[in-house]
Amino acid sequence: MSKADVVAGLAADLAEEAASLMEIVGSISEAQWALPTPAPTWTIHDQIAHLANFDALTRLALDSPDEFARFRDSLPDLQEYVDGVGPANAGLTGVQKLDWWRRENECLATAIAAADPDVRVPWFGPPMSLPSKITARIMETWAHGQDVADTLGVVRTPTARLRHVSRIGVLAFANSFRAQGLPTPDVPVFVELTAPDGDDVWSWGEKSGADSVRGAALDFCLVVTQRRHLADTDLQVSGAVAEEWMSIAQAFAGPPGRRRRPGQFTVATPLG
């Protein structure tokens, strides 16, 4: 498969992931938009504003990398900016927030389609390949969508798109330790996950080591995006390094995330 085909497939998955969340929030009341989500201080308003804003910045990075770099370099504190996106757009209604996100998501899709598949996309850390950047948007959309779904009591049916989230979770092994200021263990961890269809198995690494993580892809994705505590899943974790990783797993860049509390959610049941 060519890189152009890979990019097109990822772009289609990003559009589907966004559409599934847009469908959820498209029918809620204005009062529900203001509900607090499991992410401390973030409402549904804030979650959707975050997605709209960072779809827009991804599009800017593709269309005008120099302009993006100037914006990035002008920020005194990235985390402060991230946390301030929601409050900065507090004057918009829920419908206006959704319209904003829909426009930015569509503009991002147009920018991806026009981009060179080999482009290196500038970002807040090192430049990323276009497939990696799209995959990161899928992960972010799914993770923030989980916060919205949890707030509204919606149980989403997991899809094969979780493979993208799982892959980022695996590749972020070293990032999980760096975010905590810890050295990265020189010990391989084998990951074996059951896909949402119940038939496919996704795996990374070699089985020969003592450290492993096994279970449903949904549970793994919930843990590495810090949307569930390990204790609230059915993941089977073996080995000291694997256990430490799963206690601090972080699929996203930046400072240590705000992990969920044990017992905050019921034990996940794999859905098919």
TrEMBL record:
The record ties this protein, via Gene3D superfamilies, to: dinb family like domain
Ranges for domain tRNA wybutosine-synthesis:
187-233
Q: What InterPro entries has UniProt attached to this entry?
A: CHP03084 (IPR017518), DinB/YfiT-like (IPR034660), Maleyloyr_isom (IPR017517), MDMPI_metal-binding (IPR024344), tRNA_wybutosine-synth (IPR013917)
> Mycothiol-dependent maleylpyruvate isomerase metal-binding domain location, by residue?
14-149
SUPFAM superfamilies on file: DinB/YfiT-like putative metalloenzymes
A Gene Ontology molecular function term of the record: metal ion binding
Designated name of the protein:
TIGR03084 family protein
Naturally occurring in which organism (per UniProt): Gordonia polyisoprenivorans
Origin organism lineage: Bacteria, Bacillati, Actinomycetota, Actinomycetes, Mycobacteriales
